[in-house]
Specification:
Blueprint: H1 2-11, E1 17-21, E2 24-26, E3 32-36, E4 43-52, E5 55-64, E6 71-72, E7 80-81, H2 90-93, E8 96-97, E9 116-124, E10 139-146, E11 153-159, E12 162-168, E13 177-181, H3 191-198, E14 202-207, H4 224-234, E15 244-249, H5 251-262, E16 266-272, E17 283-285, E18 288-290, E19 301-302, E20 307-309, E21 336-341, H6 349-362, E22 368-373, E23 390-393, E24 398-401, H7 406-428, H8 430-435
Parallel strand pairs: 2-10, 13-14, 13-15, 15-16, 16-21, 20-24, 21-22
Antiparallel strand pairs: 1-3, 3-6, 4-5, 4-9, 5-7, 5-8, 9-10, 11-12, 12-14, 17-18, 19-20, 23-24
Amino acid sequence: MLHMARMQYRKLSSQVQLLVTPAKALVDDKVDITVERLAPRQPVTLHARLVEGTTRFQSYAHYRADDMGRVVVAKQPSLGGLYKGVDQMGLFWSMQPSPGQKTGLRLRKKDVSTPFLVDLSVHDGHLDVMEQQNPAVLVTTRLERWYLGKGVKRIPLKEGRLRGALFLPPGKGPFPGVIDMFGSTGGLADYRSALLASRGFATLGLAFFGYEDLPNDMSDVDLDYFEEAADWLLSHPKVQDHGIGAVGTSKAGEIVLAMATYMKQVSAAVSISSYSAISYAPLPYKDMVLPCARWMADQIVFTEDRFANVENQLEDITTEPGIHACIQVEKSHCPILFVAGEDDINIPSVFHANKAIDRMKAHGKTNYTLLKYPGTGHLIEPPYTPHCGFYFHGAFRVYVYAGGEPKGHATAQEDSWSKILGFLRKNIDRREARSKL
């Protein structure tokens, strides 16, 4: 009887419904995915595909309909595919480069004025759609995943020597201000800046080398540049003028620590996957030069496929002379949030976060918080971004290991993002403070 019911439903596959709510949302929003009008207990494969220029990512998961012929992704377990168990957003964070894509592909939004378009389809049976070409489709729909929220304005910045993009939330303001930066790959990556603005922060996505007429190399960067950016942002009429937040990943994370140490303009600092010392090149600031710990080329380990493990490339910061490169975070008066992955094999970021915290503790400071996550690598991004275990480093022209595993990394991204937003709201948004009075 059950077999006959399945046959009848499969003949009426055009009646299968795929419901996604909301179909248009920010990338850090969860979506509800439900499949209806299947046969009772029918096995199906859910398949998600994303195309961004020449970049193609996809994921899939195996489900079995309940006795009513429904699959509710938020409540029912995936039985196989690229993840298992109940996971509302598994089809997003588990995405992998499609077969034939180049090695070390990292999913990053280059043009935030357009969304990621995700095509979601349902197929009869449990299939390996990564290998099977053009399987028969029961039903399909398209989702829009945005970094740039409705009404958020992107304004290119080219003033003095400052380069980047300012994102302003809709409304009169003034809004809490944030400077947002990435690391040693250079250029301007402003997708996180757009998302921060979509969550209510006036955010300056700041480039500091390898972009337009900025220096081509990190060695030509000075800390005064970032103070100029802080002053510029604080002077903007749409920005609250009492102090800014600074968010940085990798190399930018150490710059954020230096900003928190030396600049009264910084009221909150978020350092993600970073060293606790100045690395690579000395960093000039006003009438002094912050010494650096050298990158040791002979400590880079290359695998047979020429991928680089750079985890131990930095000079020892616990002994002479590297110890002098440690950022004097104990001088900072603003709260600092360290975010680090326990499986970061690009930078030993948990070690460095703890070293910075030890300095603060030794001076009686308590203005620190450490978020550390198991199974988590170097590239901690906004929620539901696919895990990238190794990537091509454009500035150094080499493939670099980043570490982590998909599920643990996804958990860390979701948890850390909500805590970063809460940390910033608490420490730089005067509206938030007034609402608690």
